[in-house]
Amino acid sequence: MDNADRDKLTHLVWVDCPYPLLRIGLSSTLVGSARVHAGSEAPSTDPDAVIFGTGGVEGLLEGMKRHRKLHPQAVVLVMGLYLDLSAARSALRAGARGYIHAGMMPDQITRAVEIAMRGEIVAPRALLEYLISDPEIPNINILSPRQREIIDLVAEGMSNAQIASRLFLSESTIKQHLRAAYKALGVRNRYEAARLLQNGSQSSLLEDPAT
Question: How far apart are CA 161 and CA 18, in angstroms?
Answer without folding.
Answer: 38
